[in-house]
Design brief:
2 copies of one chain form a homodimer. In chain A, 45% of the residues lie in helices and 14% in strands. Chain A is built from 26 helices and 22 strands. In chain A, a hairpin with a 3-residue loop joins strand 2 and strand 3. Chain A is globular, with a radius of gyration of 24 Å. At the A-B interface, helix 8, helix 9, helix 10 and helix 16 of A face helix 8, helix 9, helix 10 and helix 16 of B.
């Protein structure tokens, strides 16, 4: 493919005016790179952003395919992201005897860089509008046919595009159905860990401080992308700024916000508020209680369950914030007023009313259907009833054996050809699987399956028979051979014949579930997905007609750019200033988890400059999935690293409030300062700032946690609403999450 | 006091027409005994209920003071209630070597009956209207003064009435403030366990089947009240029916529904829906996850945490039902319409409008205040941050030392003289306290304290210092001497001087919390309780003015009578028949918990008649706290034993739907059949049916669980909303629960 080809500026032929009417009075917006409001930025901040700047920043931005953002920060493939985004990899590289989560890791030489078993890094090379092509095949079709035709066409487009495993092609649906853009990524699956600090400083303050500020987190990790066994040479990467972010400075965040629900209809938002969020929160709370106590079984259990617990706690806090926003009468009143205004505008134009006027009620009807189907759909098809990595492998093998034999337009989307490289990376991952945790999570899930569908549900009876959830979980996990990667590979290669002949208890368990799971999926797709998709297109058109294209689309885990500035905010009775310093971490430390500083810091206290800015806040509009995004100044240089939002930003899922919503980042100086002064990572410092020796000052550094990345299993255990629609980001097609 | 004195028929001088306008078309209502709609029952069921019948049933009814209902079923003090209502006692009487929860217990002789450490049984001897007396002292006062004057007067009334420890006097506030009635109870604190089946059959189907039907639960226990070391001789008790409940038969339930919210304003209901219920549910879910895994530490941990886990699961299911009702648009729409109708009626009468028109908004304002204060209030004053029996004892000792020195009208209500017998029964209880569980629950609570108030909250900092929640919990529980009843007694007897001199770590911990707890309580009482109380009186008057007194008051854990009939209900696509049989339990059994029948049943299968009715449903209107209520036929005989409601009944907290809400009971024949054929409890069978030898038929039996009774600690751990307003019933004044 072409390198750094210019982005095709088109978000859809239906849209004529591509230069947005600037929203000069707000930093709101997660803008696509082909519809960035340059004029608004110029008017508000006096900064001129041109296409070359946008191309450079886009090509210097990276996505971690399992759910985070990142950036390229050297010509030799160095990638900066959050510690909490690399947590899975770091945990997978750990052993009971060498816990890199606890100890941290600094690769002294390139040869010391450790390969992550399941990490995939994407670089957005090109965006192409394919709206017309999709519209052509769906035009005039009714809900179900529309849905099937659309999915088939997306799979065809992606297959044509993905001519090599190094190329990842995803059609992104923008504005919830108005526009289809093909995002072409360079794909890197050989990704190696270069640096990670100790969790104690990466996530200093732990869950109590999560989503709060002031903060003191060195939530950073460096990985490196390799090509043919050598560090990948890159044409674009972000330079490191001298001195980092300053108060009042304009800041840009380039990253991959996972999901927002700002364009949902009221019926959809009410469903989230009343049904989906409470149910998901209850599950998360129970998972949290269970894992907290599970960790007390012993140090090894503590180690292996750590990331899963973090994911649950992080999601829980995020979703509580979302729920809190929706039950706030003033906040929800604004959402209601916006929908009413749009509906009135549409109703005032007879042609629009005829074309679009029925869409809201149609979505509401589909939403009722979703409420009715959600439990069997979530528990059987989305797998809430069977949270286990090994069960996931069994499912992938059985489903793939069936689906790969079908023509592409008949397959489940997650088994389309272009999805297979990511799918097989996970399936053949050498990451350790912990039997005890597998048994515990599967027991939990089966218990919930029985609880939510009822002990007399026919599928529940088929699954459990006379066994208790615990007995069943222990039997299938003890008996399966799927822990062996070679066994999984043989079954994959052997296809349907091999899978049909397999006597593995997990394969057999999934085969019991599969017919019912497929049946409920069919009902869900026809009764919920199809009408929502079809009517979402109408709603998007109505919005374009009534309001123009000055709006940005909802987040979709595709690359977006937001702008803002370094600024604190006002709490009742006190002003929150935008910076913390390294010295503050020492003051806050109690020596007890999660307020315990690692030995590196305690011993190195005299070496590190306490005045170094540690964390800071900006007005950028972000959401889960933006974790790991670079904070960039007007010159396109790194001034920080996004790792969290403040507590007010959680309502940002449904609407942005510039007065209070803040992005929380590690200051670029804190990174340099700690790498050099505490971790002996001079190799990386030189790589980040090749000409920095002369500009070195007192230099500061920083750390914290906006978790959006979620391990597959943690996501499954904790789910209850689309990971996307929920909090920790990343809708990975192969592992959908509950509705 | 007089025995079986006639109830004073007066629920308030302001109310003129005491004979209710019959609601002939519904079985709705939890009626007070002095305002029972006899005419409505006659019209609907052709059954004449006279005052003698009412007196007999009232005096044959019993209350378990910690949160359940019961009945006197023999002249020698035998009391029938649910197994789940006696669970705490049975657990307290167990040891690691002899687990009566698991094994069951049958006292072969009177001498074998085992004394429950903390059980108190009440018999309602008399009701006296004291409305005028209270109104006299509150007339014309503003919120705060009104509240203080009211509470002082209630304490005085109760003190004057409670002339002996054998007498319990509680002023009951009816209609949320319209009416004050003094309930005079005979109090029994020497209560002994006579019979309990194994938990496996008492709660067959466990949490999965809880609140469901068909059911197969032998949820029964018999205790006996003693007086001067001998079985108490009773003038009134319920006779046992021949054959038990029949389909279509009229049924009465006499019991103590804990709390309903049917007369709450919309603002209060919205607060529950949006804030209090979600928060309480999240806490319960986390407690549940934690305790489920805690039980896996070992068999002793499983045994000692069983009731606490059951309480959490039961409450969780109940509250999910309440939340589900409130987020149902049709259900909530009815509540909204009712309030609007009343407000319009009031607004249509200028005098009423002037007197009452402002009350709704005043309550809404207080509700906003509650939202603002709820976290420090719940965690510090209501003790959510410190759930531990031993901490509870420390708190009682410190507070009592202070409060007992004050004149009665200045004391906290829970330390008024008339409350002390119940309070000291708990404080001096010999029930075992399990250090490991204490440490675990206190660790949990302290973690939530830090989480909800924030790590930087001044009280949190004072409490934790540099310790982690776990370190603090371990230190204070290991270090305290309060496990020793003699130490508690000495501190109680030693009063303020002894408590001030105490060096006990739990006493010291509570002393750190006490000033802030008192301060937030003051703010809460003045800003929330006072305006709500004052305006609730206005709302009650408005309702009486607009609608007459044909209504029943919200449940208040005081004696109520409901009427109905044995009848199934219609589910989509299927009719649920009202009876199950003993044979059904054997069919449902899997041999795995919670579907495992005990050995008694498996071995005795041939002896017991499988056709015996086991459980059944009726249309009676009940709620948590009714657990253990007798189901009575028109002749006043026992035909069953209430232990649960069906899943639809959970919304009954806010409104009754006769089409679907059902009471679930153990059939009286199932009790007799199992006592005689399986448990060798002929002694009890003869006592229950002294003339039954000749009427004996094939006889059936039954079991299940509507938990309302909650152990003190379980309630604390799980709380988040008034135990009362929540689910498991029983507002015990000494252990209030979160708002």
């Amino acid at each position: 493919m072409k390198k750094s080809s210019p982005v095709l500026i088109a978000i859809g032929a239906a849209v004529v005016s591509l230069v947005a009417v600037p929203q000069a009075h707000s930093d709101e917006g997660m803008w696509t790179f082909n519809n960035f409001p340059k004029q608004a930025v110029k008017e508000r901040y006096g900064v001129s952003i041109d296409d070359a700047w946008l191309d450079h920043v886009r090509l210097s931005s990276a996505r971690l395919a399992q759910g985070c953002s990142a950036s390229f920060v050297s010509a030799s493939g160095l990638v900066m992201t959050n510690h909490h985004c690399a947590h899975s990899c770091i945990e997978q590289l750990s052993t009971p005897a060498r816990d890199l989560i606890k100890l941290g890791y600094t690769a002294k030489t390139e040869a010391d860089e450790l390969k992550c078993p399941e990490m995939e890094v994407n670089q957005l090379a090109e965006i192409e509008d394919v709206t017309e092509r999709v519209r052509k095949v769906t035009a005039g079709l009714s809900d179900q046919k529309y849905n099937e035709a659309e999915k088939a066409e997306l799979s065809r487009i992606e297959k044509e595009c993905a001519t090599s495993p190094d190329l990842r092609c995803d059609v992104v649906t923008l504005y919830r159905g108005g526009i289809y853009n093909l995002y072409k990524y360079r794909r890197y699956q050989d990704v190696r860990l270069a640096f990670a600090p100790e969790l104690a400083i990466a996530f200093f303050g732990g869950d109590p401080d999560n989503f709060n500020f002031p903060r003191y987190n060195l939530d950073v990790a460096f990985v490196r992308v390799y090509k043919d066994g050598k560090p990948a040479m890159l044409d674009h990467h972000l330079a490191w700024s001298a001195g980092g972010a300053k108060e009042g400075e304009v800041t840009f965040v380039s990253g991959h916000p996972g999901s927002t629900g700002r364009l949902l209809t009221l019926a959809q938002t009410e469903y989230l508020r009343d049904v989906a969020l409470p149910e998901r929160l209850l599950r998360l709370a129970e998972v949290r209680g269970f894992l907290t106590e599970y960790q007390r079984r012993g140090p090894e259990q503590k180690r292996t369950a750590k990331h899963m617990l973090f994911s649950a706690e992080n999601a829980m806090k995020a979703l509580r914030g979302q729920h809190g926003a929706l039950v706030d009468p003033a906040f929800f009143g604004r959402l209601r007023a916006e929908e009413q205004k749009l509906r009135q505008t549409v109703a005032g134009n007879p042609e629009w009313q005829k074309l679009y006027g029925g869409a809201w009620d149609a979505v509401a009807t589909a939403q009722e259907q979703q409420k009715a189907l959600r439990k069997p759909y979530n528990f059987l098809e989305l797998g809430l009833g069977f949270t286990s990595d090994l069960y996931g492998h069994a499912r992938t093998l059985v489903r793939a054996a069936e689906e790969r034999g079908k023509p592409i337009e008949k397959r489940f989307r997650e088994y389309r050809d272009s999805a297979l490289p990511a799918l097989t990376q996970r399936l053949f991952s050498a990451a350790p699987i912990h039997d005890e945790l597998e048994k515990a999570t599967l027991t939990f899930a089966l218990t919930k399956l029985r609880e939510e569908l009822g002990a007399d549900d026919p599928v529940v009876r088929k699954v459990l028979g006379k066994e208790s959830p615990e007995e069943l979980a222990n039997r299938v996990i003890s008996g399966t051979k799927l822990k062996d990667v070679a066994v999984r590979r043989a079954l994959w290669d052997g296809g349907k014949k091999a899978v049909d002949a397999a006597n593995d208890p997990l394969i057999k368990l999934f085969k019991i579930v599969d017919p019912d799971a497929r049946a409920i999926r069919k009902r869900f797709e026809d009764g919920v997905e199809a009408p929502i998709k079809k009517n979402a297109e109408l709603l998007a058109k109505a919005r374009f007609a009534a309001q123009g294209t000055s709006a940005y689309p909802d987040a979709t885990f595709s690359l977006r750019l937001s702008y803002g500035r370094v600024e604190g905010w006002q709490e009742p009775g006190r002003k929150v200033t935008p910076f913390t310093t390294v010295a503050g971490a020492f003051e806050r430390a109690t020596g007890r988890e999660p307020f315990d500083l690692p030995a590196t810091w305690l011993e190195g206290r005299a070496r590190i400059n306490g005045k170094t800015p540690f964390n800071f806040v900006t007005t950028n509009d972000i959401i889960g999935g933006n974790s790991g995004s670079p904070v960039i100044n007007a010159k396109g240089e790194v001034v920080g690293l996004v790792f969290d939002g403040n507590i007010h930003s959680l309502g940002g899922h449904f609407g942005f409030d510039e007065a209070k919503n803040r992005t929380v980042s590690v200051h670029s100086e804190a990174i340099i300062e700690s790498l050099g002064k505490l971790y002996g990572a001079d190799r990386l410092v030189k790589e980040l700032r090749p000409r920095a020796a002369r500009t070195e000052r007192g230099g500061p550094l920083g750390g914290g946690a906006l978790l959006r990345e979620t391990s597959r299993r943690a996501r499954d255990v904790a789910a209850g609403e689309p990971a996307a629609a929920a909090a920790p980001s990343t809708p990975t097609p192969a592992a959908p999450v509950a509705r």
